Model the fold of this input.
Amino acid sequence: ERVDYKPDDVVIDNPPFSLFSRIIDFYLDRGVKFWLWGPSLTLFTGAAVRATCVVCGETLTYANGAGVATSFCSNLYPPDVAVVVDGQLNRLMAEGDKRARKATVFTTPVYDYPAGVISAARLHKIASAGLNLTIMRSEALGDIDSLQSQRPAGKAIFGKGMLIAREAAAREAAAREAAARERHYWPLSEQEIAVIDSLTTPAEIYQIPKYVPDPLNAMVANPPFAAPTIKPEHPSLFDELTEEPK
Done:
C-alpha cells in the first residue's frame, strides 16, 4: 500500500491467502497490473472473480514444507475473460516443484520435554497403544504456554501444556515406555496355517526332525511383543464398549 506504482509495473507475488481478496481489490481499484498466487480450492471466492481466475490446481511445496493446491489470479488478461484453465502452466508448476523438493530438505523441529511436563500431543501415544493413565487435578497445573527455558528463543509448547507432580510424572513416563514397546499381534487364520503346513522344505536344505513343536500354535498361545499391562487408577470410560461379550 505504500508503494508508488508506475503505469507499466506488474506485481508478481504470493500474498498471504488470508488477505487475498483485500489485496486484489486494492490493485483493481488503482489499476495496478498483477499476477498473484492463490488458494486453488477457494479461488472463486471474494474479489478474485473481479479479475481472471487462472486455474491450475497443482500442489506446490512452500518454504515451510506445506503442500498447497495453487492457482492464480490476474488482470493481465482481457477484461471479458473470467476463467482460464491452463494445463501447460500446471505441468510447468509440477516440474518446478519436483525439482525444488529434490534440492530442499524440509525439517520440522522435534521438541522433547523433561518428566513433569505433559501436553495432549505427548499423551496421544499412550492412548493409541490402548493404555490408560489418570492424573488428578491436585497433581496438575494447566494452561502453561511455554517453559522458562523456551522463552528467550521465542518457542512454546504446542497446544499448551501442564506441569504435573513427581508421582504423576513417574506414572506418565512408565505409560509412555510401555506404549513405545507396544506391538499389535496379528494371528494366522486356520486357512493360512493349512497353507503353511502344505509347504515343504527340501530335505537336503533343512533336515526336519521327527518331532517339532508347532511354532504356529506356540505363537498364538504366546504372541511376541506383548506389551506390559499397566493397571490404571481409573478404568477408561469406554471399557464397556470394548469388552468381549460374555
Observations:
- The chain has a mean pLDDT of 78.
- Residues 87-103 form the longest helix (17 residues).
